[in-house]
Model the fold of this input.
Amino acid sequence: MTGSLPAAPVTHAEADRPGAARLAVLNASSRVMLRLLPHLPDAVKRLLLGRRTVTVDGNTLDTTLQFMLAAQRSAGVNGLVASSDVAVARSQLQKLSSMIDSGVAVDVKNGSIPGPAGPLPVRRYTPADAAAGEPRPLLVFFHGGGFVVGDLDTHDGLCRLLCRDAGVHVLAVDYRLAPEHPAPAAVDDCYAAYRWAVEHAAEFGADPARVAVGGDSAGGNLAAVASQLARNDGFALPALQLLLYPVTDFASDTRSKTLFADGYFLTKKDMDWFRDNYLAGSALDVDDPRVSPLLAEDLSGLPPAMVLTGGFDPLRDEGNQYAEALAAAGVAVDHRQFGPVVHAFANFFPLGGASATATAEVVSALRSHLSRG
Done:
């Protein structure tokens, strides 16, 4: 590892999550920084960073992301979770997401579908030319957020991009969150949503034979688990699994979890907090495949998968391991590791840099895979 982020490391004592006053200041400064960042030339960012770079395992951190992380650390914030108070953490992620404008216009409709414990809020995205030609594929999308935070709004920009540039219908699902609803509530909701989508796809102009599942981080976990459940039940398999930096193994520590435990947006403290909230009050153990899909005894017979990981993501290794395990079981896998990016890079595409390049490649590949159906 060479180089360092241009701010003093945040110690555990300093990393205590900020109070309301500091969050207000952070929000104001973040709004300015996130609006300016896409317009700053790389040369200016490098100059402001003191021309320092960060290289780990042969990957050099993207300049835009390095600048973003440095600004976060300079503000005394370290990690994705802003507060141990669940309501505050959810609100803060919503505020952060609202500051990153995707600028993508598609037709969007809110609604609900039947769920195992009552109606599930959903958001439907329709490609501009969906009425022309053959029915388009449908992607059932599950948002990330550690099973505790995140919602339809936090991932609206990414869903808009997937819809417009991959040319697919997107059905985003607002599944139940922990700790109010521990595992397997999210699994039950997402699997039910996938089954509903297969049965009702034709009603909104989508192709029932090309219904895919996908998600980022925790949402990638839920997409992987839904695929396993469909196979186990003999139900129609998804046309594709889109697994963006997925959580696949709660039970094991990996090298990337140690390497990137601190300072790279998703921290060990965040991951422990998510796990504790998701599994507290749950009857499921960490090695249950409904929690850790990598630990399923049999991975054969699953649908084709796109597995996308980031070089500076603590979840990198378990995502890579899941791709390798799927391939070893005979599943068709398109596995790509994007070296310069951190966790959640697909949400950062409006900021430019390697996040935008990687996300564009993912969307193009998704379009190509689903067009083959």
Residues 20-98 form one domain. Residues 1-15 have pLDDT under 50 and may be disordered. DSSP finds eleven helices and ten strands in the chain.
